[in-house]
Fold:
Amino acid sequence: MDLEYGPEYDDFRNEVTSFIKDNENVKIVGPVRSESRVAWQQKLIDNGYFARSIPKEYGGYGGDMDIIKLRIIAEEFAKSPIPKPMGGQGIQMLVPTILELGTEEQKQAYVRPTLRGDMIWCQGYSEPNSGSDLASLQTKGELDGSEWVINGQKIWTSTAHLSQMCFILVRTEPDAPKHQGISYLLMPMDTPGIDRRPIKQMTGDSDFNELFLTDVRIPAANIIGKRGEGWKVANATLGHERGSLADPNATMNRFNSLVNLMKGETVDGERIIDKPVFRDRLLKIQGRIVAQQSNSLRILSSQINKGQDTSMARFITKLQGTELRHDLEGLAIDAMGEIGTLYEDSPHLRDKGAWQMSYMYFLGLIIGGGTSQIQKNIISERGLGMPKEPKVQGA
Amino acid sequence: MYFGLSEEQKSLEESITKYLEASAPLETIKAIVDGDAEKAKTIHQGLVDLGISGLMVPELYGGLELDTLFAAVVSGALGAGTAPSPFIGAYVMAPLALSLAGKDDQKDNWLPKIAGGDAVIGIGLSEYVGAREDAGVNFSEGKISGRSLFVIDGKNADAYILANKSGQLFLVDANTKGIEVTNLTTVDKTRDSIELILKDVNAELLPGSEKDLSTTNKMVDTGRLMLSADTVGASQIMLDKSVAYSLERKQFGRAIGSFQAVKHMCAEMTAELEPCHSMVWHAAHCQDNIEEEAREMACHLKAHVAEVGQQVSKTSIEVHGGMGFTDEMGLHYWFKRIGLNRQLLGSPELVREEVAKLQGFDQILIKKDN
Structure:
């Protein structure tokens, strides 16, 4: 057991902290794709703090794949209020997919603008009748000469209203078994025939959309991998999404805000944190976070030291992390009492309503990316080797 | 950076697991619970032969002087095997107390005997952690009087190390006049529990504990860590048994493990328990290497693992249906052991209150505006 990164990394950490110090006054103005956002993203890439191991010819930094350096960057950026690198589905899912399975032309065309934050992507996977059973999706793609013609409907399409491109799963081989008839296509969002309708969420925001696709024509070359192998392509990078939803170190930062809230919040003049029942709930949550931090150290270790098996430690992180975060935000609301139900621009609102917002948002994350129940199926079937439920005849 | 067990730690764990599987199967544990003291002695000796008594004793006194993680690994394997053997008090907390706070003749006298498996020292810290009833010991002019409950590994011990309410530690030879030992019958019959009643018994202070609480606190931390490791080991076995049973047992024409309700019970147990293994390692590592985090980690571990252990031990019996409730299946031995571990050295609520105070959550830091 050795939790030290080693002295050879001290210089690197110093390098990162001095970059952060030199840039602590950087301000990003405007929405996504604003000039200052893209410039900052490019600066992070140029210095190796983002897209670190992606080759230079595709717009990355072209550095080594050193997990500890990535960890140090994440640790130091988390401590500082400077703007963080952009994420999003294009960067987290599409880029690794193209780098792994795309053609040279596709790599040249899409990776650089995506990394710079100048090309925003949305993900066309879910359909109204294909949520957990994603492989049953029905949106059709038919080859007509040199073009795919797409017809159907997608739902839960995050950021579709901001996106230039969509990576979409469509059924191209209607007669093949359901997992083998799907293709992975890249669809420009300004193509005629795409109708986007925002879905208003319980938070009051609209992060998601429905897409109605009527005779949408895109070039035949916009396919990743082979016809009918889209399921394999999508699965190659699906794991990236699940891992990113539940970072216990971010949860611990949030916990520290909760402690501050409970120190400041009073009822009849007594601090909430001094009330034993609230305090016990607080400490229970802290214990769960500490357990997950230990779990994540084990996963980190397996990335550095080949041969360490942490598959079970990985299967559980999405389930544990999102449920924990929902409980944490829920405690904050209970600590505030009636004040905790205030929202939007109400008087007496604490922290701009962020607790209520997160309480609802994390309920969404418990469902999105595979519900908690689906996660439990994954843990029991893939992790513990328990049998699947028998299939219903004809399904 | 490497977060995990070393090859040596894994191999020690494996050797203890294999020994207990071969020498202390459930039938043997049942016989011991029914009073077969000879079998318990044999198993204890077998474990001593594998090295459990010398783990924490300094090399100078004939021990192996290994780190806390080694001891945690052993404790986990003993919990998994419901081993009816002294360990946490006698071989972890006692050598810690003596080597950190003992004077030379105390060390010379006891540490080699501990290392060789020739002496068992019971540890009474309950009254320091949180006294129940009228328990507590007082020391004055070389004599100790009072009452100490739940002395860990105290039955048939050769000596006791007891803490008073303020955390000073006293060494008492078990053969000294004035000691009355009463058996306490707990739910967990795989380990003995006793109460000590002392009337003007000759006792020696461990001098390093007179003004400095660090040794006593380290004993509490390490004891909590070992109890947690025991619970995690026991819980993992209960989970493994549940999964195995669910694949065998058929109802409505199929294995019950194919029902989502049963699968989800097993998945929930796994999701809670899996991080606990890492948490035990992490807390053990902090004990030896990251002093500033050691106490908080030990507290969080004790409280969190107690909750997870309770959930896993309850749920795995449910997975077994009616059979889970029987003595034949024997799941209750683990269930009860986990139940005792939960209370020893502080229930979850007590320990969480302690870690709240360690972090200064109880200090009024805000000022009213008016």
Notes: Chain B is about 55% helix and 15% strand. The longest strand of chain B covers residues 193-202. Chain B touches chain A through 54 residues (CB under 8 Å). The two ends of chain B are 52 Å apart (CA to CA).
